Amino acid sequence: MTTRSKNYRKAAETIDRSRVYAPLEAIRLAKSGSATKFDPTVEVAFRLGVDPRKADQMVRGTVSLPHGTGKTARVIVFAVGDRAAQAEAAGADEVGGDELIEKVAGGYTDFDAAVATPDLMGKVGRLGRVLGPRGLMPNPKTGTVTMDVAKAVNEIKGGRIEFRVDKNSNLHFIIGKASFSDEQLVENYAAALEEVLRLKPSSSKGRYISKATLATTMGPGIPLDATLTRGLTTENPS
Description:
Layout: H1 6-12, H2 23-32, E1 41-48, E2 60-64, E3 75-78, H3 81-89, E4 94-96, H4 98-105, E5 113-116, H5 121-124, H6 128-131, H7 149-157, E6 160-164, E7 170-177, H8 182-198, E8 209-216, E9 222-223
Parallel strand pairs: 3-4, 3-5
Antiparallel strand pairs: 1-7, 1-8, 2-6, 8-9
């Protein structure tokens, strides 16, 4: 059985498990109960009413958070020639062709996102065993297989997040840091929620988001009312 810290137990005691909280209220509650020595990340988890074993019910996408994530993502780019130069100019942390592919194949995964030009995907595709389980495989659907590598690098470093439902129908994403203002976190959450709702599979039946939870790093989960989509920065959203 997991032993929780005194601060965790104290924060958990402030949460009413018999109700769900509006996003603004949940964020304030999560921040007030955070007692870490570092600036914790604020995360959201959804349980979706989809069957990820079915290809037409896979929920996967990206969204640019209006206020960023609070950290600068490390991005590598598989590109050569002019595209490589463009990626470097955009601030990519590492750029290369065959040599970078071999480095990753050897186990290098010290980065948050990978971008590739289409012409190199034949070779990059062999890295599926390394990148796939970590959610780092470049994919056209998320804009990480593209000729416009500079745009992809700028978006990722500017606060774009990627999310994908797991085999248990759970979807996780971050909305920023506890040091963000309440309004910034709510606006980030609203942007992510809008995209998740937009991606609802037409074949999904019943309730799409069956459960939602918000938490800070090392903090207790707070039941979140994901049915609220408007006026989220006000005390009484509709």
